[in-house]
Amino acid sequence: MPRAMWTGAISFGMVTVPVKLYSALNRKSVRFHQLSGKTGVRVIQKRIDPQTGEEVPYEDVVKGYEIAPERYVVIEPGELETLQPKKTKTIEIEDFVELSQIDPVFYDHPYYLVPTPGGAKPYRLLLEAMRETGKVAIARVVIRSKEQLVALRPMGDVLGMATMIFADEILPPERLDEVSEAAEVKTTKRELDIARQLVDSLAVEFEPGRYSDTYREEVLALIERKAQGREIAVQPPAEEVAAPAPDLMSALKASLDAVRAREGEGGARRRKPAAKDAAGKKPATRKPAASRGAAKR
């Protein structure tokens, strides 16, 4: 059973919603320890002063901010504590915005907020009001002595909360030289038409369970084989040969033909059939929210 990592309340207007916070992630990355290649014993890392060659006790370690090569401003622990935000147990909602206005690049870590005893009614009220209006709440909260900007939104019958990255932490794509170069490239209508057909032929309903971490699965399988004493044949790296750049139009046509051939062999991708109105006509397509179902990352 997951353990709540924070207990507090959501505050909007004069309404208070008591909640608990749970992480929405269960990381499954494979973690390795560092061992000595000679003895197989786990390596111990120490803090060594390169001038004296002696180990530095943890209590003697201070923080330093480098302002020039090998020049640091030393910050004492007590000095940082005076700058820490006031610890509160409240998620202060500041604004409500449209979900589609939030680019997924701003999402960081996802969480779940669940009601505590006595908070079910206001919790449900807030959740349903946000669902019906299509709004996302932008709020601030202090977690582990750090103030976080967060976004709250309905996720089924639970309120999701995602910590957010501040705008000045996002690298503007305009600063990348390749972006401006690509913007100057012109495409033909025929190329665009075939590219759109290729995109449409690969379009499916998003099903998260269809995707898995195949690298992690292969690493675990390798560990299992080695644990059973099986020999592992290490293949030499393949020599990389620069392939000639393919003709764009030919590549588009070949890709589209391959997808159509695969669908013709019974491998049609799953698509959600478009609904029809009472007159038997397809309704006008509505643009979905860009970040629906996403919280970062």
The helix-strand sequence is EEEEHEEHEEEHHHH
Q: Could you tell me the number of beta strands?
A: 9
Distance N terminus to C terminus?
A: 23 Å
The helix content, as a percent range, equals 10-25%
Describe, in short, the structure shown.
The protein is of the alpha+beta class. The protein has six helices and nine strands.
How would you characterize this protein structure?
By secondary structure, the protein is an alpha+beta fold. The protein has a domain at 6-25 and 91-169: Ku70, Chain: A, Domain 2 (Beta Barrel), CATH 2.40.290.10. 25% of the residues lie in helices and 24% in strands. It is built from six helices and nine strands, in the order E-E-E-E-H-E-E-H-E-E-E-H-H-H-H. The longest helix has 20 residues, at 248-267. It is extended, with a radius of gyration of 27 Å.
Please render the helix and strand layout as text:
Blueprint: E1 6-12, E2 15-23, E3 63-68, E4 71-75, H1 77-81, E5 90-98, E6 107-115, H2 120-133, E7 135-143, E8 146-155, E9 158-164, H3 177-183, H4 189-201, H5 214-227, H6 248-267
Parallel strand pairs: 1-5
Antiparallel strand pairs: 1-2, 2-6, 3-4, 5-7, 6-9, 7-8, 8-9
Essential attributes:
single chain, 297 residues, alpha+beta, Ku70, Chain: A, Domain 2, seven-stranded mixed barrel, two-stranded antiparallel sheet, 6 helices, 9 strands, extended
